[in-house]
Amino acid sequence: MVQKERFGVTSDGQAVDRYVIRGAGGAEAAILNLGCIVQELRVPNREGRLQNVVLNYGSVREYYEEDTCYLGACVGRVGNRIGGAVYTWNGETHRLEANEGPNQLHGGPNGFHRQIWEAEAGEDSVTLRRTSPDGEGGFPGNLAVSVTYRMTAENALEITYRARTDRDTPVNLTNHSYFNFTGREDHIFRHQVQLLGSAITEIAAGSIPTGRLLPVEGTPFDFRVPKEVGRDAFAPDPQLALTESYDHNYVLDGSGFRSVASVYLPETGIHMEVFTDQPGVQFYIGNYLAAPHGRNTGLCLETQHYPDSVNHADFPSMMLAPGEEYVTRTAYRFSVR
Question: Which of 176, 248, 293, 305 is catalytic?
Fold first, then answer.
């Protein structure tokens, strides 16, 4: 079932609603029509109590006026970074809004995370829709987007993204939830993570990919066998030094909708498995989290195309053309061990 309630009002008078989805398996997700934000995600722990596993805020003001970390939001039109906030397609250069030095991050300063979406509740889901107008963030084309959150009987939060455009445009949608299974404001170093990716996309200054893929074997980035986040988080490594620890795109093994990652915290028994049809996932451990949340108190697994793909012909393309439909799905499935 889905319950709608008023969460608050933005400083410019827009109503923000909260949709609580209660799944048949007992888990609950609270979704805001502001930024398609996952405001709360409550799953059973080993003791059978529902426990929130995502970082959040308690007010519209914090999400709309103060947040700099994209807590729980759907980010786009292009999640992650575009180098120099510019790309060229079919001979035409598109200059985008920069919001991280010379680069664009997560769609620019007024990306999808700051927009009010139209919401429609289903039996076990909520679908949010908006049209990103031609020129928003510097991107070409009117882009009609929908994001559906569904809570399954298996305690999985499924996210389905859809989009259509009337001009060629890049699209790369993802969710920016910060996970923490401790049940309190604590670091995430004891969380055991597995990432089924054999390489990362090498980055240079500004976290822009160089175009090279670096094998993870023999490096602090090797999570192919589960290990605690903190074990190698601050190991001497030039890639880690660039971002003060993990904030990198993993080149995922396999294709199609598949299991690509997992997180487990023994002290609460909460286990999460991540499924996606995307080629990459950004693993970020909150190195730049801002108050009221502390550094490294949440970890992100942002399923995605590789960063700056529009400027790397060898990377999987994120371009969407008129007449095509962008469809991608990610699921975060919870259980107890």
Answer: 176
